């Protein structure tokens, strides 16, 4: 059996057989699991109520994520291209003007002036480990805190939001942004084909295609935890929080043209910039700021505070400083430290907790799962990942085990608990737990307050004129290479964000938009030869429509040579 691919390519499955039985309502185009189960809802994971939390027996979600985690060997599936540095976090002991203990009992934040060692890894998301650092792409911003209570990983990006709000869509998102499995080129048509069916992505697209999509370097970019977490105080009371890293070096972004000029000279400019700054004693610093609100659904807001496609308005939830981070030491070996460092959103310490954010819950499974696949079962025994404190477990063996996490005097025959024969024992202190109340039908539904377009429109209007011009040009360049159906769907979504937004993109690709939002080809418009058919320059990376020109230019300008 074969079918037409996105550009009309014939694609055949190697596992085809003569037995083509279908379930009720199923045909040859029906999406299924590897077990042959028809997938009736590929948009929402299974949760308690439509806000979560997610349920562990969600077989489709777990199978999808666990397979996705193993798609690349050995580099990271995402965030493969990265660099890192050591440093420390110094707490202010306060949240704004209040004692931080009012909101969290996490020791990393208590005691003004206390310093905690950290390792930070910056990265790009989509491309391979040797890709240029000038690509239009979100940047990873992951921090490992070696606290007195064990490790805490704050895993985030440079932008404060994300494309999707449910982890079940993450493999689809990354597949759309990764190179075409047939041509092995990133293709904006595939990207916009997915995005045009994903309205909640409009906010992120507005950032990504503006200059904010290409930070000038790692030192001068913001960081964010993206997801909503919880802080828990000594009484077990919880608060919803967002984390934000603000660079003291200022913020700088690049236009597409500037990025291409830099890329022609140096594909590792950001890695070089960070290394040389630290080597020269020009240590980069960030201030950690917190947004906080009472735990709960907050029906007074027009968005769900657990929705990671939304920004919490700063006028309602101000940025409150809680500490600063300084990076002052380069790795002594890039592979041993930067490449083998392993982060996970589930790596929390007492006083920090999960919210029911659907992306956070899916990431919490996926991150640690992929580390065991990529680095190995005992990745936490590596020095860069090991806590800088007492470790004693009953976990044994597995790939590359090179020591036993045993306590001094522990009976080596006892690797279980409880025991009366000299085994490990539970900790004796019992801090008051946070016990959220959960009730609802287990279902697969999107959240109630999606409000996909409001903040995207607000962001469009908040951009400076030159940023807005750059955003429009980058979208136009990308959409020119797309099928007419994808173009019109994207314009419809952008218009719902802001009429001027959609109208300018439409005009840029040769379409006339009427007041009612309908579209037609402008009289006399010089349409691209790709309009509604196979793109001539399909496979262009984000922000560029000159990929085919570069191929032809290399052929024309190449100098002949004699064989030797």
Automatic annotation (TrEMBL):
A GO cellular component annotation in the UniProt record: cytoplasm
Cofactor(s) this protein cannot do without: heme
Location of region: Disordered: 1-52, 532-564
GO MF entries: catalase activity; heme binding; metal ion binding
Key words of the record: Heme, Hydrogen peroxide, Iron, Metal-binding, Oxidoreductase, Peroxidase
Chain intervals with Polar residues compositional bias: 27-48
Database matches in InterPro entries: Catalase, Catalase_AS, Catalase_clade1/3, Catalase_core, Catalase_haem_BS, Catalase_immune_responsive, Catalase_sf
PROSITE patterns reported for this sequence: CATALASE_1, CATALASE_2, CATALASE_3
Highest taxon of source: Bacteria
A Pfam family matched in the record: Catalase
Gene Ontology terms: biological process: hydrogen peroxide catabolic process; response to hydrogen peroxide
Keyword Heme attached: yes
EC number of the protein: 1.11.1.6
Biased composition (Basic and acidic residues): 554-564
Tagged with keyword Transport: no
SMART domains linked to this entry: Catalase (SM01060)
Active site, renumbered: 79, 157
Top-tier EC class: oxidoreductase
Function: Decomposes hydrogen peroxide into water and oxygen; serves to protect cells from the toxic effects of hydrogen peroxide.
PANTHER family: CATALASE, CATALASE-2
Entry protein name: Catalase
Lineage, uppermost ranks: Bacteria, Bacillati, Bacillota, Bacilli, Bacillales
